[in-house]
Design goal:
Oligomer: heterodimer
Structural class of chain A: mainly alpha
Radius of gyration of chain B: 17 Å
Strand content of chain B: under 5%
CATH class of one domain in chain A: Mainly Alpha
Strand content of chain A: under 5%
Largest interface: A-B, 82 and 70 residues
Distance between the termini of chain A: 88 Å
Order of helices and strands of chain A: HHHHHHH
Number of domains of chain B: 1
Number of helices of chain A: 7
Number of helices of chain B: 3
Number of strands of chain B: 0
Helix content of chain A: over 70%
CATH topology of chain B: Helix Hairpins
CATH architecture of one domain in chain A: Up-down Bundle
Radius of gyration of chain A: 24 Å
Largest sheet of chain A: none
CATH topology of one domain in chain A: Four Helix Bundle (Hemerythrin (Met), subunit A)
Number of strands of chain A: 0
Chain lengths: ~180, ~100
C-alpha cells in the first residue's frame, strides 16, 4: 500500500511541478495528463472507483483534449520569457504559504463525525452502486442544478466564441450630400 | 494503512504548486491548467476525508467539482479565443483591456 501511495504521490507532485514550469504549453498539457492519471490511481486506492473512471473520462478525455485543441488552434510560438519578471518574489511567497499550511496540517487533529458508509458496507454492493444511490437520493436537487449549470456554461461558451457577424458600414441617413 | 495526513499533505503540496503556477506563469492557458491542478488537489482532499470518515458526501462533492471544472474550462477557453482573435495575445500581462 505504501509503495503504491509513494509512487502515485511522487509522480503527481513531479508532474504538477513540470506543468507549472515547462516552457512549451503543449508539454505542460501532457504533464497535466500524467498528473490526472496518477490522481485517478489515488482515487482507486481510496475506494472511489467510479470517481477514478470519471476522472479519466471527463478530465483526461474531455477537458484536457479541449485544452490541446485550443493550444493547437492558436499555434503559439514558444516564448523566451514564460514567467513573470518578478516571479522569484511570488515563488518565495508561495513556499512560505506552503510551509505554513503544512505546519497547520501537522497540528490539526482531523476529528469529525463518522458517517454510516463504512468500507465494508460500501464494498458489499460496490462503490459505484453506493455513489449512484447517494447521488439520486440525497443529492438529487444538486444533480439537477449541475445539469442546468452545465447547459448554461455550454451556451455561454458558444455565444462567446462565435464569429462576430460583419457589421455593414451604414452611412448616416441624413448626411448632406454635396 | 496510510494515515489521512499523508493524503492531506499531498493535497496541500499540489494545491500550492497550482497556486504558484497561477501567480508566476504568463500564458493564460497554462494559468487555467494550474487552476485545474488546484481543483484536483481539492478533490484528493475530499475523497480522502470521505474514505476515512465513512461518508459518501466527499465523493459527491468531488463529482460536482469535476462538473464545475468542465464548465470553467469551456468558458475560460472561449474567453481566450475571443481575446486572441482581437488582440493576438495570450499573455496575462498583455491582456489589460479592463485596466483603467
Amino acid at each position: 500500500m505504501w509503495l503504491l501511495f509513494i509512487y502515485f504521490a511522487t509522480v503527481s507532485v513531479v508532474a504538477g511541478v513540470l506543468t507549472v514550469s515547462l516552457r512549451n504549453a503543449v508539454h505542460c498539457a501532457l504533464a497535466l495528463l500524467t498528473l490526472l492519471f496518477h490522481i485517478a490511481g489515488l482515487f482507486v486506492m481510496l475506494n472511489a472507483e467510479f470517481l477514478a473512471a470519471v476522472q479519466i473520462i471527463v478530465y483526461a478525455g474531455a477537458i484536457l483534449i479541449l485544452y490541446l485543441f485550443v493550444l493547437m488552434l492558436m499555434n503559439l510560438k514558444t516564448e523566451e520569457q514564460h514567467l513573470h519578471k518578478k516571479h522569484s518574489y511570488l515563488l518565495f511567497a508561495g513556499m512560505g504559504l506552503l510551509a505554513e499550511l503544512l505546519i497547520l496540517l501537522m497540528l490539526s487533529p482531523y476529528g469529525g463525525r463518522m458517517g454510516s458508509a463504512t468500507p465494508e458496507v460500501v464494498l458489499t454492493t460496490g462503490p459505484s452502486h453506493a455513489v449512484g444511490i447517494t447521488m439520486f437520493s440525497d443529492y438529487l436537487l444538486l444533480f439537477e442544478i449541475v445539469g442546468v449549470f452545465l447547459l448554461g456554461a455550454v451556451i455561454g461558451a458558444i455565444v462567446l466564441a462565435k464569429t462576430p457577424a460583419k457589421t455593414e458600414n451604414q452611412e448616416p441617413a441624413n448626411f448632406p450630400t454635396p | 494503512m496510510i494515515p489521512l495526513s499523508a493524503y492531506v499533505a499531498l493535497s496541500a503540496i499540489l494545491f500550492m504548486t497550482g497556486l504558484i503556477g497561477v501567480l508566476i506563469r504568463r500564458n493564460f492557458i497554462v494559468v487555467l491548467m494550474s487552476v485545474e491542478i488546484m481543483l484536483n488537489a481539492a478533490n484528493i482532499n475530499l475523497v480522502a476525508f470521505s474514505h476515512y470518515l465513512n461518508s459518501m458526501a466527499g465523493q459527491m462533492s468531488a463529482l460536482f467539482i469535476i462538473a464545475v471544472a468542465a464548465a470553467e474550462a469551456a468558458i475560460g477557453l472561449a474567453i481566450i479565443i475571443v481575446i486572441f482573435r482581437g488582440k493576438m495575445a495570450t499573455n496575462v500581462d498583455q491582456i489589460n483591456i479592463l485596466k483603467w
